[in-house]
Every structure is written in structure tokens, then in C-alpha cells.
């Protein structure tokens, strides 16, 4: 099995290599377009974001497009909503996927993460120093991603599926700045009995995001600080590789279990992960799903292993637990996840997903 997977992994590294080599000669920021790494879908986030090998629903357009070949019905739709930081940040996701034939599938996805109703108080005082509340304006800061995904069964190896994403990124900071970007992802899945393997290469050509600032709105602020003003800039997202494996189990006819793990590998410098260096950082994740009668599901996951330093300068390792439940009936799936749980058990993120599949 390992010998059969080596050519596939080698191919993904070859896809990543041009972008990594080119990016060594430029200044690429860490955590560029990081909103795309938060994740989508309550099922996935309840399992700690472990999906590259096991995803087989409409969210595969995000996690690994190769999983679209395993869609349960011809038409599949999913919507997700979550709120972060006590509802300040709104995270919305929608996707539609369809089987083109028995060996190929297509999907379209939209992601929006934003903060709305931000007060612009720059003109709160007039030239005489008087407060004029009617001069307050409100704006939004939001990041958008539009994904078109395609997957097809491969003839190279039995059980192998291949997929790709073309994504358009739009980022907006009210009337002050906006940016457009474009990127490509590639993924693969291999299914062998109860075993599933996956590989997802994101931003394989590096993703370019071109920013344009509104000079008329920002010039006064820059002049007050006596700093230079550059109205245009380019942000570059370096490639990322995710390798995963999972295995399913069946118990007493009505009970099932799915255990999976992912390795999130980044190449943009040393990160606060379990395994890190100047060349590569590796963030491991593990997820579990227990099902009853293909109708009720209980989920859990561990991810985001980090070394945290307290106020006394003492460092300790922390890990983020995630939990989820799901109900499925007649093609309708309702999933709930609790993510980003702190040490005092206060939940800071609640994710709700609704999915429907039909022929």
C-alpha cells in the first residue's frame, strides 16, 4: 500500500515545488489569507478539522475536492453559520455539489467571514469642535472566497480519485481598501476497503492577492504620521500540504466508528506547532465519529497543539478539544459543533450546519 501511495505523494510535492522555489526569492508573509484555514461544516469542525481522507459530501469542495466523487445523492447542498468572539465575527459558508456521472462531480462554494457595523468616527467633530453624531458612518470588513471544484475517478489505480479547485478571493475593508486574488488547489483520495487516505495541496502555484488602497480616504492618516503611502501591494500565500488517513469500523450491525488523522504541513517559516523548524511546520490533528443506525452521530477531535507561555514565563503544551453531534434522516443532515473550547470550559464558537441531498 505504501509503495502505491509514494508516486501520488511525489506528484503532489512536484506540484508544490515551483511555488516554494519561486517564493524563496520574495518576501511572503506568514498566515496570508488565513481565513481560509478556519474550516467549514459542523461535522468537520466537530472532528477537529480532520477531513482530507474521509470527506465525501458537498464540503469536499473545500477540504479535498477528490472527495466529491463519493457524494451520497445527485444533488447536494450545505449551509453553515458560526460566530466567533461573542458574535463579533460572522462566518458563513454555502456549497452546491452534483454528480456529473458515475465517475465525476462538480461543486461551487462561497465563504464569507466578516465583521459588520464598524463605526467610522473620523468626522465625529466638526471644525468648531462640536460633536455631530449624524456624521458617524458604518462599514464592514469581510473576506470572501469563491471556489469551483471538479473531481474524477482515476484510471491509474483502483479506488483513486483526483480533484482540483480554482478559487477567487475578494477582501474588502469598507471603502478604505479591497483586494482580489486567485489560486489553485489539488487533492487526491484513495479508498481501500475500510481504509481511506487523502492528500490536499493548497495554493500549489502560490496564491496572489493584489491590494488596492483608497488614497483619498487614507491619505490624511498617513500624513499625520509622516509615513510613506503605497496605494498598491501584493500579498502571496505559500503552498500548504495536508496528508490524512482514516479507518471505519462496524459494530453489532447498528453501530459504526470512524477514526481519522491529518498532518497539516506548512512551508512559510517556523510556526507554534508540535513539530516546527525554519523550513517546515507540522500540525497534527485527530478526529473520531461514532454513529448509530446511520442516523445519530457523536463526534470529537483534538487539534491546534501549541506551546503557551503564562505570565510567569512558564511554558506548557495546550491542545484544543472539539465536540459535535449530528442527526440524519431522509437526505437531511443537521450538525452542531462546539469548537475553540478554553480551559475553563467556556465555548467561544458554536457551528451549525444544515445539509440536504436528493436525486
From TrEMBL:
Q: Which UniProt keywords apply?
A: Signal
Position of the signal peptide: 1-23
Q: What is this protein called?
A: PorV/PorQ family protein
Q: Report the source organism.
A: Rufibacter radiotolerans
Native organism taxonomy: Bacteria, Pseudomonadati, Bacteroidota, Cytophagia, Cytophagales
